[in-house]
Amino acid sequence: MKEMYKLLTPFCCIATLLLMLLGTATYAQQKESITIKGIVTDESNVPLPGVTVTVKGTNNGTITNANGVYSITVNSPDDVLSFTLMGELPKEVKAGDKKVINVTLVTDTKQLKDVVVIGYGTSSKKDVTGAITTIKSEEFNQGVLTTPAELLQGKVAGLNVTKSGDPNASPAVVLRGPSTIRTTGGAMEPFYVIDGVPGASIDLLAPADIESIDVLKDASATAIYGARAANGVIIVTTRKAKPGQARLSYSAYGAVESVSKKIDMLSGDELRAYLKKNGQTLIPTLNDDGSNTNWQNLVERKGYSQNHNISYGGATATTDYGASANYLKNDGILKNTSLERTILRGYINQRFFNNRLKLGLTITNSHTKSNDIPQSNVLSNMLFYLPTVSPFNPDGSYKEYYARTGSGTLNPLSLIDNNKLVTDDSKSMVNGIAQVDIIKGLKYTLSVSSQRDENNFNSYYNSKSGLAVNFNGLATRKSYLNTSSVLESYFNYDRVFGLNSVKLLAGYTYQQDKTNDGFGITTQNFSNDALGYNNLYLSNPANTSQITFDNNPISTLRLISYYGRIQYSYNEKYLFQASLRNDGSSAFGVNHRWGYFPAISAGWNISSEKFMEKIKAISVLKLRAGYGVSGNSAGFNAFSALLIYGSSATNSKFLYNGNITNAVGPVRNENPDLKWESTATTNIGVDFGIFKDRISGSVDYYIKKTSDLIYDQYPVSTTQYFVPTYTANVGSIKNSGIEVVLSATPVRTQSFTWRTSFNAAHNKNVIENLSNDKFKINYIQTAQLGGKGQSFLYSQIIQPGYALGTFNLWHYLGKNASGVSTYQKADGTTTAVQPLSTDTRINGNAQPTLIYGWTNNFYYKNFDLGFLVRGVMGNKILNATLAGLNNPVDSKIQNIPKFTEGESYSDINAYLISDRFLESGSYLRMDNATLGYTFKPHTQSIKSIRFYASGNNLFVITKYRGIDPEMNIGGVTPGIDNNNFYPKTRSFIIGVNASF
User: Which GO terms of the cellular component aspect does the record hold (predicted)?
Assistant: First the structure.
């Protein structure tokens, strides 16, 4: 922070000097005052509220009320009244000797063009040369949404958002395919910017507080954010009060959620019948007490959710302000899982010196409390655990049999009730901004923000927990504070010279991130479970090895940037944009801490040419082309490129002079040449509109190539290096694809309107290289799923020539005459015993070839109906859950699905993970349908009240045999279902939105 404020000092001096210059403004000699009243209307003679009325050249101003009425005092008949309102042409009227002046404002068609946020500024949609998609608040998805990223699901071409039913899990967000093989620190996620604050946490916002979201896709648009923009940039603009507007709004919904699909397992009687049919029996009492227990029904429940949002705000000629409060409670459909979040937000902006100086302050706090369970254990055991056993003993304790082997060895209900996991997270952000209009067209902006993320995690596995047998209670407490300070200082110069329009940007950024300021400790052996994790002092470990500390050192990372951009337009026909950013980061090697990220793009508004005037059907036709380079520096700390000393995880202590001492030695090699990954994107696009934009859309083709891929496990010789693995920039990965967006208003009458929008995106992903002359590796094996006798096996491979998420599996050849599964060996022969790891072969990948979404909205008088259909095609899912369950031989100790009833009991290989369980992940989902009615009472105090009912995940069409085909597509092991999928939910919602 000291460095930041040192850098802030000169900028404050500049701002002070500017204020002194502004303070020399002269004022006209005061004469006898005259009060003028009137009404401002539009072209249809409808009163216009919120019109700013000022006496030209002075600070004297007012705002029209809800009826368009204003009253203002002038000092002379020579004074000129200025009337301005966003979307209307400004108008000036000389006061004269009139005491009533009524004014009609005319719609400004140019000003009504869609405004797109492009980073450190805005642009009209007509002037945009990059690939940018804007989603307004009225287009957002409806439903029980725990993070704003879900608002965009199915709405943006090329943006794939996937989420399970877990209320505490963040969705995986991938834009235009994966561009890295790293997963830590959000390395695969887009970069978020909230109201101009780069890197702000998206969890700070409630969906109801968001006005619009702009998705910057190609590098010609994202390169202005330099080393953090390789995965795209998502810019969020929050709601602000408009001039003359005084608003109070309240929105709320209640929802009920249930599991949309379950795996069809055998009941107790069905399992007994299956075993009897095959001459087998269960061990009495221990494995069969005569019960018929449906563990899925006992573990799962109906989830009830509620959301409340209240906000108010107002704006005058010189001030706008507002505040909001949001409360969300989302109970998961697995018992003891829930999320509770409260978000408070307030802002105020004040303008001085005839609106030439603007000072603003925004404060936001988000507090989230999450209750969770050991999900991986519960999700697995609720399927595998024997249905022939009851949950409880006669004394009410949970029935357990720890000596039982197999996959389902722990009572699922016991796992839920005897293991407690609680996360308490508090995020806050304070953002101050100063804007000065220096001269006509030249504006200076200084923005300073501070973010805090305090995360506390507590867990307690009590003395009856099957995960901590004989531990007498196992407690963990973690408390970490992450802070981020950002200073943005930049100048914007916007001027129009005849047919020439010029926009210039020059700026400087300083950011400091401090992470892992805290500790974590685990201890055991409590005398009782009464206090849980609340007093670790009461633990009594037998030796020091039973106390473990987190190895998370504090890290301080700094980023300094210089950037500039030029936008030029001639006659609104020929468009040009170029930008350059120079980023310096302390995370990388001393030889490569600075990097340049250039971008250039151009556009041609063909529809503005004279030769297009005769083609009346075409209202918009624009050609765009751009090239740029952006970077990926996410997931690194200040030690990433340094020689690090620490304790080995496997041999951290030794005996020295009779004392146990920590072993300290090198644990990471130094790499002075380590730098960020760079993504170069070429984008060619066409925007079009026909029949006065009744039909509009765009087509984009892109090639996105990431070089200098970072991998931290390159093998090196210990004769040259301290540690046998090395972190280096070596590989490259390529994404190429095409995106199509089509919007239309097929029907538009006085009482009925139908709007529809369709988007589709095709992407091809391929790993191009993993080696160079110095560091060589042929492939990287991933997805070690385990399972009976398969702990050595990897199910995916990262290899040049193939996509990330490529499956590498045994090839299933069917059953032999004895009903035993057979597989193909590497030499082409057939085997009826478990193959070797060298017998695997490549077969499909988890990357979808097509992502699509189709939105429809119907409006009839005060009724509205909307629905969203979305889906993917061409991807594969490895159903390792079904493979592990398909184990007839072990059906005496664990349950099996109905699928296995068709298997031979003698099939000793049925459970092996092979391409037999590699299934199509294609699906079509009715994601949302909403019916609403808006009531507009004839009163000034109530603007509107809308009631609505909504259903989410109403149905899905798929061939996938698992719980749901919407698998996580993030990370380096996408598309795998391995007893770890929190069930997808189906929800029904009743809600209300009221504006006052």
Answer: cell outer membrane
